[in-house]
Amino acid sequence: MSELLITFDKESPSLVDEKINIKVMPEESEVECKFLEGAPGERNLTWKPIQDFSDKKECQWRPRKSGDYMIMVQYKDKNSKKIKNTKISYQIKGIEEKDVLENNNKNNKLIKDIIIDKTSLVIGDKINLEVLASEDEEILLYRFWVKGKQGWEPLKDYSIENKLTYTTTKAEDGEILIECKRPSSKENVDDFTTVIFKVKEQPIIEINAFECLSENLLINEELIFKVGVNCDNSRTILYKFLRMDSNGRINCVQDYSTKNIISISEKQKGEYKLLCYVRDIFSNKQYDDRACMIYSVKAYDEIKIRKFSSDSNSPQVEGSNILFKSSVIGGKEILYRYIVEGPVAEDTGYIRSRNFNWETKIEGDYKIILKVKDISFDGDYEDIRELNFKIDKKGEKPVKITDITASKTRRCIKNEPINIKVKAEGGTELKYSFVVYKNGKEKERSNYGITNWVNFTPEESGEYEVEIRVIDKYSSKEYDCHDFIFFKVRDYEEAEIDYVLLSPKEIYLVGDIIELETIVQNTKNILLRYVTKINGHEVEDTGFIESKRLRLKPKCSGKYTFEIYAKNILCNEEYDIKKELSLYVHEAIPVSNTKIIIRNEEIIANNEVTFDVSSEGGKEVCYEFYIMEKGNWVRVQSYSRKNYYTFLPFSTGNYRILVLSKSYYKKINYEDYTLLEFEVKA
């Protein structure tokens, strides 16, 4: 039983003979109350009952005399005899003191106002309030209560802090009591007031989407699940996921978190359940909504035969080899079984090959059965298909196209006829049909006849496909064999480069003129583009020009590549044809024909002799001289532009001179050399 609080509808002091309503709080408390008046006497207070014990929590008091009164409320539980009481003083003034009383009321009012940020809230919102006190008071103490189920519940005891932040946790019509007193006051409360607020429930959270984002639910693959709710982003929603396997075992995939997308990978096939709990972050409930998804995880995608066909149409003759092909989707490791039912039966058993080559032996009607399954499947098959095939007795050679010729397959122009001829063999009497397609759609066809040629005149530009069909006179099939020929038809004549003429030289040197001339058909309507590259690096691009010649004077050595693009002036594509030409440009021709000339007719010991050197080719040719004396080679002059060497022999005998030559820019030891043997006499 919590303590009761006495409140008045008029603040103390009041006037004589005024009606004052006394109320105890909280009103919801299940106690009986008795109200008493303590009137001032000569020595002590004289107690008179105002209202006897009852369930009423309110009474009306009308004091007849002025003075300092004490109001006491005695209260007890209905089933108890134990009585408790609470008291509060109250002052009554005479009528003549009315003006003074009003002024005192104003002066004694401690709480001037309450500032509250909002009075209408939803669960989880915070109330922020501030007490504005009288400016005459320097220090005041504040106490805060909140109205609860069992009466007033303390929020904060007396302190000088005049601000309060309160978090709402349930939907209700709430009330906060603010009490105030001076530190020196002997009263329990000098002034008080209340503020009323209303707390509403948060909008109901509902799961409105629970989906699996993964297309295939297979073992050892990532399975992604996503949950959606009916709330906007202004609320913080928490999600919890629990997974249950086929044996009922539950594990928590994700505890409450703001992540609404999770990823799971199952290691075994089977049926699973995924439970999702959602709640607002401020909700006091275990969850606000929940949903369950049942999903099945397979070891592999369902196996299906998408196509089962043969490379030959039925009927065929005995002795033919017929290739059966299959296209199967699903599974992880697929096995194939081909069964032939008929005069001669065959069974491949389950094999890994998707193709089956059937060698026909005896005429008759056959059924070819294809069964497929995954290697892990225990049953007979997971999908099955059948084909009926007829084998005839072997007779003449089968019908076969041996050759197709056309008057032109390139440079086709609209409104110009194209002659197509076909050669075929086999059968008894062959007939031919031609079907024309443009961009995959049939444009025209000719009926079967004995003529093995056709003149096809395209009336529009585009890509054409002509199907040639051949059938035997006695065949009941749509055709016995067929083939295709393709044409690309343009509005104009494509450019064609016949030749690229180059100035006739064996060796090109830096500074030489290189001239290219391109020979093209339909010259007036052709544009050419020349792209020049040196050692793979593009150095010039002329763009498309009318000139059929390119003149170039190389300034450095290297590999020169010329890319020549040609197109008709009506061409909308990048080009019609391209050709490429490469050549090497050298700094100079190689040094060759190096010779040594001796100025002296006779070489005498202790006399100077000069050797002159000449050569052909090269650029800024340098020479290096070696002398062999007494079996030893000695370099007597390093590479330089000096083309002679003066030698002073000191002894007689046979000598040899070696001269190495090369162009100055060459990074090699030599390009040419020559040797000369001479004798020094006494």
Structural overview:
The protein is an all-beta fold. The protein has seven domains: 5-108, Immunoglobulins (Immunoglobulin-like, Sandwich), CATH 2.60.40; 111-200, Sandwich (Immunoglobulin-like), CATH 2.60.40; 207-297, Immunoglobulin-like; 304-392, Immunoglobulins (Immunoglobulin-like), CATH 2.60.40.10; 400-490, Immunoglobulin-like, CATH 2.60.40.2550; 497-586, Sandwich (Immunoglobulin-like), CATH 2.60.40; 592-680, Immunoglobulin-like (Sandwich). Helix content is 2%, strand content 58%. It has one helix and 54 strands. Strands 2-8-7-4-5 form a five-stranded mixed sheet, with no helix packed on it. A five-stranded mixed sheet has the order 10-16-15-12-13, with no helix packed on it. The radius of gyration is 57 Å and the shape is elongated.
Reported for the largest beta sheet, the result is: 5 strands, mixed
Number of strands: 54
Q: Mean pLDDT, nearest integer?
A: 87
**Shape estimate:** elongated
Unreliable segments of 5+ consecutive residues: none
Radius of gyration: 57 Å
- The CATH superfamily label of the largest domain reads Immunoglobulins
Query: Helical region count?
Result: 1
The CATH level-2 architecture of the largest domain is identified as: Sandwich
Measured between the Cα atoms of the first and last residue, the distance is 149 Å
Q: SS-based structural class? A: mainly beta
> Helix coverage percent of residues?
under 10%
Report strand order across the widest sheet.
Answer: 2-8-7-4-5
- What number of domains? 7
Strand content is over 45%
Under CATH, the topology of the largest domain can be stated as: Immunoglobulin-like
CATH first level of the largest domain: Mainly Beta
